[in-house]
Amino acid sequence: MLDILIKNGTVYDGSGSEGVRKNVGVLDGKIVFPAGEELPEAKKVIDAEGLAVAPGFIDAHSHSDGQIYTEPSRMSKLLQGNTTEIAGQCGSSRMPWLPDAPFDSEETKDLFVSSHDYPSYAAYKADMRKRKFGTNQMCFTGHRSIRASMLGMQLRPATATELDRMKGLLAECMEEGSPGMSTGLVYAPSCYSTEEELVELLKVVARYGGIYTTHIRGEGDTVLEALEEAIRIGEKAGVSVNISHFKAMFPQNFHKVDRMLELVDEANRRGNSVTMDAYPYTATSAGTKSALPPSFLSMGIPALAEWLGTKEGVDALRKAVTEQTEVWENPIKNIGAKNFLITDAAVTKEAVGRRVSEYAAMKGLDEVEAFADLFSKNRCRMTDIRFTMLEENLEKIYRHPCCMVGTDGMYAGGNGLAHPRSFATFPRYLGRFIREKKVLSLAEGIRRMTGMTAERYHVKDRGFIREGYAADLTIFDPETVIDGATYENPFLPNKGILYVTVGGELRVENGTPVGEDCGAFLTWRD
Question: Is the pLDDT of residue 414 over 70?
Fold first, then answer.
């Protein structure tokens, strides 16, 4: 007797092949195909007439490693059909954090290192395999963790000795099954690293056949130079490259997307392996401290928070923003306070759900004063949504054959807001971009968030509907699937995601959460 029988559905196996009307069984957590014309008995029968049966969606770019402690059920992901998350992105991971990392203060350390961080990948993996969470997890090693363990927030190149120690830490992670290294080169302290440092570290990743996934050094005015650097680093180190949340921000840069896609094609023709992921929204989201000039953060949080509460600090911020005194994306200047929506704030709760321009008007401040006030009072503990992109560019990006789907989601529970991508990326991609805009066929659209991602990240026995593979399955209505979440209310339900199984366990039934957490921690070596 089968555990689950899914009958009468149109099966899209994750390979990009067109859907086939087929029955699918689940037995002991694995996919089986019933033989013969007579249907076998099953403990649970799902009639998928008129529905698409797909592999469980794989989030190519997740920040779940920082969220599974406060939202272990991962219902924000399961309810959009997502069963596996590739985490440790943008240079941020829970490991390896050395206990003697040279931060200037405990407050600065606490902004980067949590009680859920680990000294090694082995310790992290051991703890993850004791925990219960809703989705499967795979995690990169973050460059920020490695660099900050050696240098804290110091704005300088690593010495040869420090670099050797960093390479040793990374090698240990790779031995334990890390898929590679990620960077967030607009975030301190990773933005203080040189190209040479990154090449040397990634040579370690290359020895293990791993991947370099990168939030490049700029997605605004310097986006072409930053993308060229990422590709060059991969070629020098001999490592495959994935460009995270591929985009060009700010109106003056929208035209650069065509050239960006050409750069990817040119690199692949030279024999490199370059892919990308993207989320289906025109707004970004980040810790608001990333809007500051990188040099500001090098002074440490206590000194920075106090300084931005003074006229001298406000004047320095104004000069940096208006005169572009150093190289960074400078979103305060490029999109203005009206395009920053505060989603969480440690102290100024009255700012949450408001644009910074609204907060400024409420407090009688100009825009730069408002940012300085928020940074100072919240001691840089804020998150925001920034409206920075063009939807037509997203269509071009999704049409490119090297593009996967990722959420870049950062919802960790609690009372704050969050970007709707954390809740609705996959229904939005399927409904708006596949069904309505027809950027790809349904079969190819499904491949981009299942089989393609599984192959890219060596997610074994997942991403395809094949005999003996793990029974991670998503059943949805291709005619009605659509996102419900909005920027103002990201918690609104999606439509059309009807059934989800993880490892053969039913976790969503008729669009409603059921069952118990049963996700697995996966490694590159599994």
Answer: no
* Tokens of residue 125, six digits: 């993996």
Rounded CA gap, 92 and 89, in Å?
6
235 shares its domain with 313 = no
What's the domain count of the chain? 2
What angle is formed at CA 317 by the lines to CA 311 and CA 321, rounded to 5 degrees? 145
Q: How many residues belong to the chain?
A: 526
Does 316 reside within a domain?
yes
Are 275 and 352 in the same domain? no
CATH number for the domain harbouring residue 279 = 3.20.20.140
Per-residue buried b or exposed e for 146-181, using 16+ beta carbons within 10 Å of the residue's own CB = bbbbbbbbbeeebeeebbebbbebbbbbbebbbbbb
Tell me the helices (H) and strands (E) count for the chain, helix number first. Answer: 18, 21
Same domain, 233 and 344: no
The whole domain housing 173 covers: 90-131+142-287+395-420
In a domain, 432, yes or no: no
Q: Do residues 171 and 302 share a domain?
A: no
Cβ atoms < 10 Å from Cβ of 214: 29
pTM of the model: 0.97
Query: pLDDT digit string (tens) for 22-56?
Result: 999 999 999 999 988 889 999 999 999 999 999 99
In a domain, 154, yes or no: yes
d(CA 295, CA 326): 8
Instruction: Report the distance separating Cα 350 and Cα 345, nearest Å.
Output: 9
Q: Which residue has the tokens 């790779």?
A: 174
State the Cα–Cα distance between residues 374 and 345, nearest whole angstrom.
8
307, two tokens: 């300084």
Q: Does 188 fall in a domain?
A: yes
H helix or E strand, kind and range, residue 75: helix 75-78
Q: Tell me the per-residue pLDDT of 119-165, one tens digit each, with 9 for 90 and over.
A: 999 999 999 999 999 999 999 999 999 999 999 999 999 999 999 99
